[in-house]
Amino acid sequence: MAMTALKHREFTVLVVDDVASNIKFLHHFLSGEGFNVQVAQDGEDCLQTVDYAPPDLILLDIMLPGVDGFEVSKRLKSNPKTAQIPIIFMTALSDMNSKIRGFDAGASDYITKPLEPREVLARISVHLKLHRLQQELAKSNRQLQHQLETTKVLKNKLIERSEALEEANRELERLVHLDGLTQVANRRRLDRYLEKEWPHLAKEKGYLSAILCDIDYFKLYNDTHGHIEGDECLKQVAKTIEWVVHRPADLVARYGGEEFIVLLPHTDLQGVLHVAENIRQAIQALQVPHSSSKVAPYVTVSMGVHTVIPTSHTDAASLLRPADRALYAAKKQGRNRVVVYDTSLESLFSASS
């Protein structure tokens, strides 16, 4: 069932945050979207609210006074009555350890502050849909089990239904790792990919290359053409990057806002430069009009590139941070270009600090 077919007023969202302005913003936004909204300002208040009137989904801040978000999530997931309620963490923490700790505590997803309304709505919609489907699947399983106990004639039907459920679960797994707008991988899929590939490549002593890609002057594009056209632009750029990056082991993900990331295992610096330039030229060839751009009359992209050989003593930050600095340098040097990270770029940051 498509989320657009579900009536938001059927769902209650509990917002847990100790910052009054955040609660006010989310209450106003979600109520405007038709949701029933509950609020709590600390961990104990949240636990009491859920015990009294369980919501359909919880937006949970990590940094709370008293009982923090990690502990609240653990307690809710340890209670059979509340274990199935989806929890989306809201946090300004962006390091991988905090993300992993959040998922270990039972979170379904996370949103990085500052909050972007369309992302908040998209993630809530995906997880409510996932929760609804899981409930329906669980109900179907219970019904099938009862039927199986009453008659052996239903054995073949059970097999068919089980296959359908497996297919549905595979589809749900795919949905939860996709960015709702662009249909490329999301940050959660990116984190899982790095968790798996980093130790694998460290063992093989293989290259891992990253391309950080940012649409030039995208805010001006939105201001000029509107957010609907902005969304279409993001979709076209994402589709074009996927068209260029076609190996099964490669990953294209939305990194945030107008930024995308490409990860290329077993690809050295010469190889990643070739891919990055192909992406830049392919997006330029789209000729998407951008009258507010200061570098071209159409949409262009800037890219930062870095290559490493992962080790057991390093983590993904050693790949992503230099790529981000190279992207910054590409913007400083005039945009619509590919810049490779080297240590000389550090002067840009020491000069600005």
From TrEMBL:
Domain Response regulatory: start-end pairs: 12-128
Enzyme Commission code: 2.7.7.65
Catalysed reactions, as listed in the record: 2 GTP = 3',3'-c-di-GMP + 2 diphosphate
Residue ranges that the Swiss-Prot or TrEMBL entry lists as coiled coil: 130-175
Recorded GO CC terms: plasma membrane
Cofactor(s) the record lists: Mg(2+)
First-level EC class: transferase
SUPFAM superfamilies the record matches: CheY-like, Nucleotide cyclase
Molecular function in Gene Ontology: diguanylate cyclase activity
Biological-process GO terms, alphabetical: cell adhesion involved in single-species biofilm formation; negative regulation of bacterial-type flagellum-dependent cell motility; phosphorelay signal transduction system
4-aspartylphosphate, modified sites: 61
Pfam family, one: Response_reg
Keywords, alphabetical: Coiled coil, Phosphoprotein
Domain annotation GGDEF: ranges: 206-343
Name of the protein in question: diguanylate cyclase
